[in-house]
Design goal:
Structural class: mainly beta
Family: Belongs to the glycosyl hydrolase 2 family.
InterPro entries: Beta-gal/glucu_dom_sf, Galactose-bd-like_sf, GH, GH2_Domain-Containing, Glyco_hydro_2_cat, Glyco_hydro_2_N, Ig-like_fold, Ig-like_GH2
Shape: globular
Radius of gyration: 27 Å
Keywords: Glycosidase, Hydrolase
GO molecular function: hydrolase activity
Pfam family, one: Glyco_hydro_2_C
Largest sheet: 8 strands, parallel
Helix content: 10-25%
Oligomer: single chain
Number of strands: 40
Strand content: 35-45%
Strand order of the largest sheet: 27-26-25-24-23-32-31-28
């Protein structure tokens, strides 16, 4: 896209040649106040410092501002666009009600042309943000009364929290532009939806080529297939995008919209995921989309891009945007940077007919807004039975609601795998994902192995300080779920950064041990308010992970040590200074790898070594097959009673994988050691 349009709010449906931002200062008042005595900065929620208001538990408020319509828009229809307003908005222009919208995460618009007058215009927005959010889609925003999961929720973000802007278009105009890659990945399939009464013709041009076709509009729809010569496939390694310029011509005028997509195919084949015909292993991280002073609104466009870059620097190839339809510019940056995305709507809190309807109302807007994105490879729906009272197995109505959400989504987009209820109790799903947290590295490894080899179909879930239940993978006794790709889509524990770094290394290693695993999603990228589970703090600064580098843990090629670790700083207890460790290689590249295993010692929690010892045993690994074990032998340096043994796989002089374990010769039992 051109530099001048980089901040345009809707990059997948780009009418930036005729837009004007209404972000900035608006008059503001609570419903209990008579006059507009305060100023709020849009688009920041009224709870946030960035808004200038910082009002908490305010259920109803009003916004007001004036604007002028650009002079060059004469003869066009003027449309007022809202990216998202939480939760219910009613909009007036010059005293005329132009639109009312319910749903805090979905976009809406109003043609305001007939309400305009000469000169300066006034827009007023009334926003209702219920304190009781349990039956509305609110994601991770807290509720009064509280939700069952309120302990893992954050400060509410109410009011206008995405961009507001004006656009100009003819009366007969493009209403939607759906782009999808062809099955053979050599063409772009286009479906345009047209609104208006005038006869029209659509011209589609593939930018950067000479391809331009005229397409008739029949009953408001135009369809075409744009062949791509020498197609270049979109992937994380080469995120190439194809831009399509659509021009609709009618007696009402000319409307031009730009959109883009990538040529890529995501498939479920048996228990594996494939991207463009090649096996894909998902190395994901949870990203909840919160910022310290701006709530659920990014402070600026660069913040969205930076979070993706931080995830990539930590070795992740996918970001799961959790319980939130993120600003569409996040998806755009993922498309450009090559970051895979798991996208999902906001959760409700309690089960009712109204909450089911509120949840389902998000599905179609989600697919329409973001469906062109090549980065989105997984659609999520419910999460951990939130909004289903944690009781899918016990209620056929909740089973039907879960399956119905899946069916609604797949009817709109069958090209991507969908998860019906992430975490457990699946009813109808394309991926078998589970959320498993365990403070014991030993029981973690045993449970993961038992889930994957079919010895058990349930696992413990801690729902409260003293409340642990066992959750089954299937939410209906007749639902066969084996044979689908397995993903551990939430994990990570530890009360301190040292413990979290230790668990990150060892728990991720155990997931890499099993070739049946299709991927994982670590919880999480950064801290949020009271939740200190991130690899980074809330300001996106690095934390002390006790020498663990996430980029090594999440690399394409990693080492798997046949050790059951005891505790941070004491992975392996040895009665002598000599240790022997079986080492394996997990490799998810396209070609086999091989090399020598080499070692180096540093103090526990010391800096990484600058160099490694001479070549040790030779080892080789094929893609997606855990290698056999090679024995690494090492001896603590003279006078040392403990130390960190670094192990590296070196191929042609380059380190392509590394890990470490802490050896301690003080072998007294460790309190809480569950081996």
């Amino acid at each position: 896209m051109k530099e001048s349009t980089m901040e345009y709010p809707r990059p997948h449906f780009d009418r930036s040649h005729a837009w004007a931002s209404l972000n900035g200062d608006w008059d503001f008042r609570a419903d209990t106040e008579r006059d507009y005595t305060r100023t709020i900065t849009v688009p920041f929620a009224w709870e946030t410092p960035a808004s200038g208001i910082e009002a908490h538990w305010l259920p109803l408020a009003w916004y007001r501002r004036t604007f002028t319509v650009p002079g060059g828009w004469a003869g066009q229809r003027v449309v007022l666009q809202f990216g998202a307003v939480h939760h219910e908005a009613t909009v007036w222009v010059n005293g005329v009600e132009v639109v009312s919208h319910r749903g805090g995460y979905t976009p809406f618009e109003a043609d305001i042309t007939d309400a305009l007058k000469e000169g300066e215009q006034e827009v007023v927005v009334r926003v209702s943000a219920p304190l009781d959010k349990r039956e509305i889609a609110h994601g991770k925003q807290r509720s009064i009364p509280r939700d069952d999961f309120d302990g893992v929720c954050f400060t509410p973000s109410s009011g206008i929290w995405q961009s507001v802007w004006l656009e100009a278009r003819p009366a007969t105009h493009l209403a939607a532009l759906k782009l999808r890659p062809s099955q053979a990945l050599n063409a772009i399939e286009v479906e345009a939806r047209v609104s208006g009464t005038a006869d029209s013709t659509l011209t589609l041009a593939l930018r950067g080529t000479s391809l331009s076709v005229e397409v008739p509009v029949v009953d408001g729809v135009a369809e075409a297939v744009l062949p791509v010569a020498e197609p270049r496939l979109w992937s994380p390694e080469d995120p190439h995008l194809y831009h399509v310029d659509a021009t609709l011509t009618s007696a009402d005028g000319t409307d031009t919209v730009a959109a883009y997509t990538g040529l890529r195919r995501i498939e479920v084949i048996g228990e594996d995921l494939y991207l463009n015909g090649s096996r894909l292993f998902v190395r994901g991280v949870l990203d909840q989309g919160y910022w310290p002073r701006t709530g659920i609104t990014p402070p600026d466009d660069a913040a969205l891009r930076r979070d993706i870059e931080l995830a990539a620097a930590a070795g992740y190839n996918l970001v799961r945007k959790h319980l939130k339809l993120e600003d569409p510019r996040f998806v755009h940056h993922a498309d450009v940077l090559g970051m895979l995305v798991w996208a999902e709507p906001a959760a409700t809190g309690r089960f009712s007919a109204d909450s089911v309807a509120a949840f389902e109302e998000q599905i179609a807007p989600m697919v329409e807004r973001d469906g062109n994105s090549p980065a989105i490879i997984i659609w999520g729906l419910y999460n951990e039975e939130w909004g289903l009272d944690w009781d899918i197995p016990g209620d056929p109505a909740k089973q039907r609601a879960t399956a119905q959400a899946y069916d609604l989504l797949k009817a709109l987009d069958a090209s991507r795998p969908a998860v019906d209820n992430s975490g457990w109790t699946h009813v109808k799903t394309d991926l078998l994902d589970w959320h498993y947290y365990d403070e014991s590295a030993a029981s973690w490894g045993r449970t993961v192995a038992a889930l994957l080899n079919g010895e058990q179909d349930d696992f413990p879930v801690k729902l409260g300080p003293d409340f642990v239940v066992r959750k089954k993978l299937a939410g209906h006794p007749d639902q066969p779920l084996r044979g689908l790709p397995n993903l551990n889509s939430e994990y990570g524990t530890g009360f301190t950064s040292v413990e979290r770094g230790w668990q990150l290394r060892w728990q991720t290693q155990e997931l890499r041990r099993h070739d049946r695993v299709a991927g994982y999603v670590y919880t999480e990228l950064y801290d949020i308010e009271h939740e200190m589970a991130g690899l980074l703090d809330f300001e996106r600064r690095a934390k002390d992970l006790a020498g663990v580098n996430p980029a090594d843990v999440n690399a394409t090629t990693t080492l798997v040590l046949d050790v059951v670790p005891v505790a941070p700083g004491r992975d392996l207890l040895s009665e002598s200074r000599e240790v022997s460790v079986p080492v394996r290689v997990s490799h998810h590249g396209t070609e086999p790898v091989n090399g020598h295993l080499r070692t180096a010692w540093t103090p526990v929690f010391g800096a990484a070594p600058a160099a490694f010892d001479a070549d040790g045993p030779w080892i080789e690994a094929k893609p997606f097959l855990l290698s056999g074990a090679a024995e690494v032998r090492a001896e603590l340096p003279a006078g040392w009673t403990s130390g960190r043994l670094h192990v590296a796989l070196v191929s042609d002089g380059a380190v392509i994988a590394r890990s470490a374990l802490d050896v301690d010769t003080h072998t007294d039992p460790v309190i809480g050691d569950d081996r």
